[in-house]
Amino acid sequence: MRVVMRFLSELRRRKVIQTLIPFLGVIWLLLQIIAVVTPLLNLSPFVATSLTIFLFACFPVVFYLAWYFDITPQGIKVTEVDYSEHPKPLGFKWWLGLSVVIVGSLMLGLHYFDNARTDYAKRNEGLVNSVKASSIAVLPFRDQSPDSDQQYLAAGITEELATILGQVDGLQVASASAGFSLARQNLLPVDIARRLKVDTLLSGSIHKIGNQIRLRVELINAEDGMTLWSQSFSRELSDIFAVETEIARAVANLLQQRYLEAGSLTSLNSTSSTDAYLMYLRGREQYRLQTTESIKEARRLFEQALALDPEYAMAYVALADTIILLAEGSASFGVLKADIAATLAEQHLAKALVRAPELAEAHAVRGLLLFYLQSNYDAALPALDKALSLNPNLAQVHLWRFAALEQLGRSQDAWQALQQAHRLDPIAITHQYNLAFKLAERGELTLAEQQYRQLIADFPDSPMGYAGLADLYTQTGELADSLDYWQQAYRLSPENNNFQVNLISTMLELQLLDKVEQLTSDKHYEATLLLRRGRYNELIELMTFQLAANPEDPWVAFEAGWYQLLVGDKAQGIELLLQAHQYFQPADLLSLPMCSPALEIAWAYKQRQQAEAAAKLIRQCTDTLPPAGPTGYQDIYRRYLNARLAALQNRPEQALTELSAAVNQGWRQWWSQHDPLLAPIADTTEAEALFSTIEQALQVQRAKAVAKLQNTLNNPPD
Fold it and tell me: Tell me: the pLDDT tens digits for 354-396?
């Protein structure tokens, strides 16, 4: 309080108030004059606003000067600080203070001036219902043309608006594909917004007659579904790119405080040929179907678009993207040799980048090419990063970046990239599946299960959610549930070899041998069936024949040796493992997650007293293993592997600890009690109890599986 009183006293002594009151009076008088003159001279109302801001911005400067100077009849004098001395000249500190006050006043004035200019510009354009929001989703535009034959055009406009809005700094834009997926579920706009976690939605319709197109757009509040802004645009089709940028700029100005000038947003997906654009959109329509036939048709349509306009940069990007998908090894679309596809895609991307070097999609597809077809992960990252610097809302690019970072071993960065991909598109199958997989890997099993179930709810006809749950339940020892979900995945995709292999493996583990024989006649499973049926003599005879037929095949020798170790001649098994070693390529020895067959061969060397050879293989295994992560997905494999390593290195206590952890987390392999690598601990009371736990758990799971199969037989799926 004393400080305040002292400050007020100093104000009176320095006569600051006597100076400020006339200054405020001058301001008031000038504003009155401006209010009268502005309409007479037909001046912009913004002139009065600007002058007001300027005058009030000068207030701190006047206050500062009034603190140090007095206005007297003899003129302006420096205010005396100490009456016993003569006034001192103003020094460096005073000039520094004045400079700070002037700069601060200037910045404050510019801030308010910019806000006022923004508000004035928005009001001039009728954007008065603005609402602050940081996220938006573009819903699929409706085709209201007379013949309802312009759906491809409506979808193209939806994608393009999402792309242009994605260039706006500070605005998160949900992937257009997410909007397409949710719209097919006939959800209300508010429900779509809740699922995509966005503040606003942009919806609209198109009406095309001849060469004329009318667009009606609505900006919707996600909380209550109320329309915040709507407008209609009637143009010729050739002006579609200008209309799209105009809509995007209006929306950005409605949602954000700052003002985007006309021309600040541009559509790089532009062409001088309307026919080329329509051909491109028809290609995009086929591309979205994601079948081999549709991708081939998309390629043909993109090539026709380029024939109509050889300068159409976006068509070159789309063609390159399509060719990459058609490369061998891609998601069932492979019809081109990978090297040929890479060469063609690179040529088209080079043409696109020459014509539009700032086209985000071109850099994105180049990153995909380097990553997918050339396995050049280090070079792929800068290309993907460049794409995201131009448009940070490209959800698919974040996913590609996640995959590249995973290959480079940058797990934490990869996890962040995956999370961003899922934020922008929480609906895409690949995003949901990868997120669930990584959640399980991080030990968040409940969240992983929820995500897989959400995937099934969104895409009940996709096998990926079922396969994810099946894999998850395998890792937690719930083999009956795993079998059930593998069956559902296999039913939806019977040509997927991975699904069939996992389904059969689970049946073999549960000893549902008749079901395996009903499902497949593949000779590959003959040896395992003989083993599980206990027909050991026939098994050894079969493997002897296989060895004679394939004398230099390392995998045949390894498999034969392994069966000998389990149920046959141990010495013969050791010999076969060592024989297999000489034919294996180094890269084939360390297959994760079990470092097999390196560890089995190391054990064989150890039995032959060749400790150095055994130690070398064990060291290669431990050097190959990634750092141990949190308890989660596939941790049971790591635990069992650790138990085998500890047993090989004469650390029985650690071997028992790791084996116990594996069993407790869900390890249910029936052959564990026969594993020769665990022989040093197999006869201990602790190990026998763990093997008994495995056997009992398998019996329980087998009974549950039989009951589930019987129920399915009585109530077959539709």
Answer: 999 999 999 999 999 998 888 899 999 999 999 999 999 999 9
Give the C-alpha separation, 544 to 568, whole Å. 12
Q: Which residue has the tokens 């950005």?
A: 252
Residue 597, preceding bond cis, omega within 30 degrees?
Answer: yes
How far is 244 from 207, CA to CA, in rounded Å? Answer: 15
DSSP 265: S
Alpha carbon 353 to its chain centroid, in Å, reads 25
411 within domain boundaries? no
Can you spell out the DSSP letters for 139-193? PPPEE-STTS--HHHHHHHHHHHHHHHTTSTT-EE--HHHHHHHHTTT--HHHHH
* Average pLDDT along the chain: 85
Q: Is residue 110 part of a domain?
A: yes
**Which tokens belong to 320?**
């390159």
Give yes or no: residues 160 and 230 share one domain: yes
Is 226 inside any structural domain? yes
Cα 261 vs. chain centroid, distance in angstroms?
32
Tell me the pLDDT tens digit for each residue of 182-236.
988 888 888 999 999 999 999 999 998 888 889 999 999 988 888 888 888 888 8
Range of the domain at 50: 2-82+90-124
Domain boundary among 255, 274, 309: 255
Which of 469, 453, 155 is closest to 285 using CA atoms? 155
Q: What is the pTM of this model?
A: 0.79
CATH of the domain at 211: 3.40.50.10610
User: Which pair of structure tokens corresponds to residue 522?
Assistant: 């593949």
For residues 118 and 139, membership in a common domain is answered with no
- If one counts the domains in the chain, the total is 2
What distance in Å separates the CA atoms of residue 511 and residue 555, rounded to the nearest whole number? 24
Question: Is residue 651 in a domain?
Answer: no
Structure tokens at 195: 């699922």
> Do residue 115 and residue 180 come from a single domain?
no
Q: What is the largest CA-CA distance in the chain?
A: 125
Rounded Cα–Cα distance for residues 304 and 290 (Å): 20
Are residues 196 and 244 located together in one domain of the fold?
Answer: yes
Residues found in the chain? 718
Rounded Cα gap, residues 306 and 310, in angstroms: 5
Q: Are residues 166 and 227 in the same domain?
A: yes
Using DSSP's 3-state secondary structure scheme, residue 272 falls into: coil
Which of 237, 255, 273 is a domain's end point?
255
Q: How far apart are CA 633 and CA 528, in angstroms?
A: 26
- Spatial distance between the Cα atoms of 159 and 198, rounded to a whole number of angstroms: 17
Distance CA 364, CA 356 (A): 13
CA pair distance 387, 370, nearest whole angstrom = 14
